[in-house]
Amino acid sequence: MDTRVEIAKGVVLKNPVLSASGTFAYGEEFSEIFDLSLLGGIITKGLSLKPKKGNPCPRVFETTAGMINSIGLENIGVDAFVQEKLPFLGQFYTPVIVNFFGNEEEEYEQVAARLDVDGISALEMNVSCPNVKKGGIEFGKEPDILYSLVSRVRSITRKPLFVKLSPMVKDIREMALAAQEAGADALTCANTIPAMAIDETTWRPVLGNITGGLSGPAIKPVALKLVFDVYQCVNIPVIASGGIATYRDVIQFLLAGASAVEVGSASLRDPMCFISIIEGTAAYMKEHSIESVAELTGKLII
Ligand SMILES: Cc1cc2nc3c(=O)[nH]c(=O)nc-3n(C[C@H](O)[C@H](O)[C@H](O)COP(=O)(O)O)c2cc1C
Fold first, then answer.
1. What are the pLDDT tens digits along the chain (302 aa)?
2. Which domain holds residue 137?
3. Is 129 a catalytic residue?
4. Which of 24, 30, 161, 215 has most ligand 1 atoms within 8 Å of CB, for mutation?
């Protein structure tokens, strides 16, 4: 039985389970709980060119079936990451994939250029960010804007480039194709869904930023459909993100077309869930005599 997955040229995961960006910070806290070398890969908190403070508190709210966050992409900035956090991550035997973003195309290019260093296996671009120069419309919402952004970043870096798609689009297949044509090596499907919470006792929004992004079990069926749609139209690997909490979720996303999965909100509730998900996936494969993860990817019977 082989749980390995090659997610891009030269990026081999020992199992298909990655940490999601933003719920794993830079790995330090989780490393006190389990050996990070057990993970298929580590995806770090989204980085910008300069350190970013994020949104006013409160920034997280637990919903009936998940959570809403409005962290506002708080991070230490790309240079501090490379100097202070990357050496720490280097001690683990697992690929480090760095998530990043920008407010304009030039910022994406500048961050990507600074991440073209040893110790980073791949980059994951968060394109659910407002394009300051184009009136604030998200990069990931228009195929031509996304194509232009991904092409520019592609030409800047030698690293495998993953594009993390936004779920809030007219047709995610258009966005997936635009990213693939622009040179993406894999697509992450997908980011959080815009949401809000209101306190009926104060008549006020719960979150300091008023709105945020919904994640967790509530979005799993939506993410499954997005992965299913994207898998049908591209020929690069799809990485699933949205509500994955158990090995059963992993198998379902693989069947829908994913080659690997990211675990986010579930790990805030139970940091050890990574281990049970990895072990459960391997046990499922053994029980069903599945010799490689690729035997499950896209094998939904219709
Ligand atoms: C607290 C928090 C912070 C996040 N920060 C980022 C980020 O910096 N960059 C990014 O691309 N996605 C970020 N995300 C989105 C997650 O990586 C993931 O795509 C999303 O939460 C759906 O997966 P889940 O249901 O397993 O949490 C964040 C999510 C949460 C809950």
1. 899 999 999 999 999 999 999 999 999 999 999 999 999 999 999 999 999 999 999 999 999 999 999 999 999 999 999 999 999 999 999 999 999 999 999 999 999 999 999 999 999 999 999 998 888 899 999 999 999 999 999 999 999 999 999 999 999 999 999 999 999 999 999 999 999 999 999 999 999 999 999 999 999 999 999 999 999 999 999 999 999 999 999 999 999 999 999 999 999 999 999 999 999 999 999 999 999 999 999 999 99
2. 5-55+73-195+215-295
3. yes
4. 215
Tokens of residue 18, six digits: 């990655």
The predicted model scores a pTM of: 0.98
Give the DSSP per-residue string, 83-150. Answer: IIIHHHHTTSSS-EEEEE--SSHHHHHHHHHHT-STT--EEEEE--SB-GGGTT-BGGGSHHHHHHHH
- Residue 135 domain-assigned (yes or no): yes
Q: How many residues does the chain have?
A: 302
Which CATH number characterizes residue 180's domain?
3.20.20.70
Beta carbon of 126 within 6 Å of any ligand 1 atom: yes
Strand partners, 187: 163, 238
